[in-house]
Design brief:
4 copies of one chain form a homotetramer. In chain A, strands 3-2-1-4-8-7-6-5 form an 8-stranded mixed β-sheet, sandwiched between helices. Helix content of chain A is about 35%, strand content about 20%. The first copy, chain A, is of the alpha+beta class.
């Protein structure tokens, strides 16, 4: 996670909801256990920290509650940023026929079709959370989504699975991006 | 080897065949010696492990028996995935004229022509093993093959040689992929 | 910072100006605290070193004085070099609509428009410093600039912020460069 | 240096010539001081080693003698391999106008023009050494050359300078390669 970009959360308790959440403005490569906040379902800090939770805490809470995820990860990479832009007009990216898809929870064959929705970016977090909720409602089987010119969200039952999903989706996005370039040259 | 993808095997004993084999679903970057399974020629675990052997164990066994290889490696990379797709209709990729080819066992000159066959991917392991066997029968001199949108297989007399072959083929695939792009621009 | 390329400075004292400055001709990856020079506002060494200050010290001094920056960083990367060339005729590069822009000091929304000016390279340091001063006078809000076929300059209140600005601008330049390639293929 | 590819030499003594030379077939990333051979001007081992000197020892000797170099480095990279192929018909690559050129010994300005000759690859080492000698005779100011679909040679007064030259030439080759792609897209 470059500079202060990206963030992560993990469910500590379901009822009432408590999320371990990375703080705002901290270099994630240097994140220490002491810096991790605990927040409630309204993104208020319930641990003993003077820090500010990430602006995107509301998005993590929404994903956690709607999907029952145990952990949520969000990354900014060159490939996910550029493809979220390039395919924005299509509303998403279709990823199909790759063996690597089998690393996504519940996928048994490379013949799986993963639709990765792209949602317009916004600084209005409640509005963005609502847009994400509506997108996830329409795409119940998806393992992640892109925010346009912003980054990738994925999740899992726990942090290890969420990390595996991020790695697989990043791999497939880079593969799709490079294939797009090469296909054009091969014609 | 990204996430849980890729796998490796090495011959422990020829008669009856015993292969040291990476387990299924384990992050290969964190693979420990204790996790390595021993399997027989029917992919049954003969070591004291509750784990599941990799789904692709049958492919390793077939390659080992047919070619007398001492070790087999399988990798998923962005470049091997995209080129296995891009050249699938050609049935393979021709690699010719590169000094780096001399790193492949038995190759003495850059004027060597390496034909890297591409085989359709499948989740039916016995059928895929049979397709691989037929391809290797027709291409006795090859040092590896690609599974479409899946990855690269290579092998050697031992793990060090198999690793060298994988590194060389990955290098050459990236070189071919980038050349394809640049050739088009230079015209 | 590759080989002996790139350099960095940080303000030690404002009145009279004293800059900690990387020396000329030293591999920056192996730079030690003992090698860091202290220079005055005419780029004369005031610390006890027999070394030569970087040729580009005058540029660091000018940026520091004009903008009140606390630290200045200069990097040579493949992406910043090629884009400084490709967009030179446009006089700069427009970076707009990326979430990552929010990592630049004072930027609150992805809807920010960052104009990164491109200045012709020169070995005449006083002339180049004057060209930079004129460019910064016309572009008071910019967080960096490019020297054509040479590299990127950025700055901040301190070294940590300057480093964050460099990382963000490098990320965005690579994203723009790759998008340029892919857009063309997608059409 | 990938796998067993690439090699390096350094002058130990001028009269009679003694070169410290990397052995053949050893993984250069794992090269130890004990493995380094000493050879004479006919590429015969004069140190107490049972090893075989690199096939390309004759090329190192020729470069050392003709140019008075203190060290020679040879690398295989994806970018140097593909550009040595792409520009082979032009006989070389022109690198001009880059600040990074100033890292090459004796170059004082970015306005320098570096002509990097490309020589056809061969397994006949005496013939290849002769072709290199003729090329260097015609291009006395060059800091390196490419062997087609093979790799890059550079040199310096000592290993540190040779390494700096290799790093700079690799940087510039990648920059040229990426610029070629992007220029085409920007038109």
């Amino acid at each position: 996670m470059l500079g202060t970009s990206g963030n992560l959360s993990a469910v500590v308790q379901r009822e009432p909801l408590r999320l371990a959440m990375s703080p705002s403005g901290v270099d994630k490569g240097e994140l220490t256990a002491q810096q991790v906040l605990t927040i409630d379902e309204d993104a208020r800090i319930v641990s003993d920290h003077a820090a500010k939770p990430s602006d995107e805490s509301l998005l993590h809470i929404r994903i956690t509650k709607q999907l029952g995820a145990g952990a949520v990860l969000h990354t900014h990479s060159v490939w996910n940023t550029m493809l979220s832009d390039l395919y924005a007009a299509d509303g998403g990216i279709n990823i199909e026929g790759y063996e690597m898809l089998k690393g996504l929870q519940g996928v048994k064959t490379h013949e799986h079709r993963e639709w990765l929705p792209i949602i317009d970016n916004s600084q209005d977090m409640p509005a963005l959370a609502a847009a994400i909720a509506a997108t996830l409602e329409r795409n119940k089987a998806t393992h992640g989504f892109l925010l346009k010119r912003h980054g990738l969200y994925s999740w899992g039952d726990n942090l290890a699975q969420a990390k595996r999903h991020i790695e697989i989706l990043e791999f497939l996005l880079e593969t799709l991006g490079r294939t797009l370039l090469a296909e054009n040259s091969k014609r």
